[in-house]
Amino acid sequence: MHISRYLNDWRKTRSTPPSRSSHQRTYLPFLASPINRDVLDTVSGVTSNRHDVYPYRIQHEASTVELFYDLFFVANLAYFTAMHQHTDGSSLANYIKLFTMTWFTWLGVTLFDTRFAVDSLWNRFSKAIQFGVMTVWVYAGGVYDKSDDIKNDARSYKNFATALAFGRFAIAVQYFVVMYQSRMFRRTLIPVGLSGLVHVLAGAAFMVQLFVLPKGSVDNPEQITLFIIAIAEGLAIFIIAIFWRIVSFKYTHLVERLQLLTLIIIGEGIIGMVKSTACITKAQSSTNAAEVGTVISSVLLLYLIYMLYFDSLSHDRFGTIRQQIWSLFHYPLHMAIVLCVEGNTSLIVWNSAVQALNFIRSVSPTDPSDPAAGFKSSADYIASLTRTMQDINDRFISVKWNSTYDWTRNLTAIANLTKSEGFKSDSWNNKTGELVTQIFENAQIFAFSAHKDTLGAIKAVKDQAGTPRMTLDAVFKVFNVTVLQFYIGAGAMLLLLAVIYWFNKKNKSKLEIGDMVTRVVVGVIGIVFGLIVVLANKGEKGFKFIASSWIVAIAVFGFLFVLLVDNIILAIAHHSSGHVSYRSHKQRGPYNDDDDTVKLVQTSSIRDLGISKPLPTQQDRQEHATHFVTYEHDGSTDGVESYALRERGKSVV
């Protein structure tokens, strides 16, 4: 393979004018091969060289149909987030299981698409099947949402398992088709065939669930079984790619797909944040500074999550094993981001409800045993209660207090007690205290139920509770779950960003290690703080009630601190005299690898020549040393080698 071949092809390419029809729409083939045509031309008839080449087309970016598939992921995520009520730890665990099933189903399709998908009728038909599978995901509601009143979870489980199995069989067929198309490259047969077999086994395992489970209602055994199958399937595909580097993801756009999915998940948090903001403006007649501050903090939180993730990414290509570990860690990272942003969404409304709750408490009697303290007559006391009830009623606009609870009956009962028992008698104080307590407990419940359009969990616990006091206790438990979810999600996100940062960078300086340590420390503090806030005082006088407007702001300050330390460290590294990290990077080159995958890639684009041909081998470089001095990297960072041929004394291109 000689360098002169590249120059001849390059000259032909440069001298041939572009075809008039080159930009016209062409027909869509029924079946397109993922094999690189240049590889076929190069190794045609030369069997001995076929094991040294990477035969598949290298796709630099996600196709539109792949992005369209991502929309089904986010649609399911948005639907289940809105419908699935996190009322306790068990319901939150079910939500995590559902997210896991969705994420690993998305992963299985993505791992195929990033390596082998080529636009054709067959590919679009296969993608349509996956769209249908994601649409049938609505049956998962009966499997994982235990607050659903419709008791058809056994039927939903069977339908859900059938959809999962059908989707896996469809992916397996795609792998077997690719296996046939690349049959002349013997090194690809085993890994591609094994990948298809993994999906066949996963589909068969899902089908077994139709006959073995469920036994009665769907519970943890059924949920965990699906959970384990999905995770094992994803891990198996990655393990195959580790042992057979010829089907690795190193020269694919898998990194880009994961980054786009991260952006989509953050975007789902933005949608929820806007809905929550609209809810408080629609539910209340006015907003105070604390509510506005919480909304501002929520916007900043989402922006900071974006910066924390994307600013820490290294654009240098990293090795196969590290890349796949980096990719797998996106599952817990995405889970942590979802918990954080959904908690952030709910806390906007929770804070607004707590502000109304605190207002109601401020006008409630301090001593139920002497409810009319400071009043000289029953008429004055009843008039004061009437004004207070009217103030509460005027605070809300979407739902009125007097339409949900007839507090005038309590006031009439107090007036009747005055006639029968006498004003401020012991009997009058006891009975009036009970009536007034009942009024204000129902008013406190109303402060939360007025936001039930966004806080669906309120309706779930309200329908199950009995007395007003029991309902309030159930509502406060939901608040505890939300606060704990938020802080654990935020802290875990920082911890996982530190882990991802570690695998994203091969050679780490002491300053970069400092970045990771900062994330770990702040992440641990965030989780511990959340546990303290919730567990130390579960009552109504805890921090989360007294300073509800600071719950999101504290996380914002933590994220800001991490970014501040990052920039201080970068400034120190930039202005330090040694520039150790920079020099070592220049010496080893930006594409120094820690594995042998680079040997497989002999068909990367030589961008500067304007053609797609195999990279020159070491023998070519030696044979033509009299004509060409070096092969210099052009500095691109898109994950694929791109070289410029430079002649002694002047550049050829």
TrEMBL record:
Native source species: Lophiostoma macrostomum CBS 122681
PANTHER family noted in UniProt: CHROMOSOME 16, WHOLE GENOME SHOTGUN SEQUENCE (PTHR42101), LOW TEMPERATURE REQUIREMENT A (PTHR42101:SF1)
Pfam families per record: LtrA
Segments traversing the membrane: 67-86, 92-112, 124-140, 160-180, 192-212, 224-246, 290-310, 484-504, 516-536, 548-573
The entry's keywords: Membrane, Transmembrane, Transmembrane helix
Protein name: Low temperature requirement A
InterPro entries: Low_temperature_requirement_A
